């Protein structure tokens, strides 16, 4: 956006070329407001419904002004994205719940990132890879220079888009501390996203320059993923999507939350935190053969057994407690019409915790179990901003320093998540930041409306 508006742009990318683009390479869709069917989007998804969905998952921990700015921007950005080589496609089976709300990138996030970089290069944006910033010079809330590998780089304006601190395991450990069982939960976290989001610039801005902060350092986009996933960059394919079709138990063999509370795209990002609160930060998703074919299959096959006791033994869960849990659940399932594409009437009765939808007895062998660990995608602690994307110091917006992406997502996401909203935030504020950076270069005033 800055280059299109006439500014000369240098992009400093901390990662090597193969890992460029941060967590965008791990995305797959964009949540879009629309008032009528649009190419790959069916029906309508009006502003108020989008806002209510966001309000529900955040529990009110969001800035409504900035959230609605993001929502409205999501309705008009796709033509601009297409102009830079991004292609869209309808959702594949296993993701049909979001056919109305989310536009999927053809080729996924990697194709999106590649398209943007190709377009940036054609426009004349200079790009340096393996170029992490050591520190910034800031005077009276104004950007002066960036220091990169011993080089001092001056510029009229700067946009920070350096992500959260999710791949800084020491900072995660510090933020989460020790729980009442004497455990350090963060030691069992896996990082779904890029290994390069160390939070160096975020901490530098907060601690060395006193930038205004937003968000809780323990809040994050946190998903229950396969416990066998790699420490970094597991991405989408490590997610376990069968939770709503079965039950989840902890290592003691006990259920701990309503698996059928709502559609999976609105609830998958709470399960990492739920598992993080369990003993040993581990859980087990249990399904039977009735669920097969109704969810996106994970990259690793599940543990399989012909009987539930055998499954418990293979998972290392106490068989007696596990069987009590499963029997209580099966007995509590009420007759109904099962339909995993709607909020159906299959629920439990007199069971704590309940299962509100898609509850049916787990009785048909073979049975499957998937060990779950918390998978952190990105953290929500970030820089406080306003609708100009300006970084703020003591409540005052900077004249020439802007922020975009995960580094400011906490202004909209205080907690929780709903599929595709991170890309909505990144796209909206990336465009705002780029446009306003160009205005600074051109000597034009940036209008600050609301924080």
UniProtKB/TrEMBL annotation:
Q: Which UniProt keywords apply?
A: FAD, Flavoprotein, Oxidoreductase
Domain FAD-dependent oxidoreductase 2 FAD-binding, by residue range, is: 3-413
Q: What cofactor does this chain's UniProt record say it requires?
A: FAD
Q: Which Gene3D superfamilies match?
A: FAD/NAD(P)-binding domain, Succinate dehydrogenase/fumarate reductase flavoprotein, catalytic domain
> Highest taxon of the source?
Bacteria
Indicate what this protein is called per its UniProt record: FAD-dependent tricarballylate dehydrogenase TcuA
User: Which species expresses this protein natively?
Assistant: Variovorax defluvii
Gene name on record? tcuA
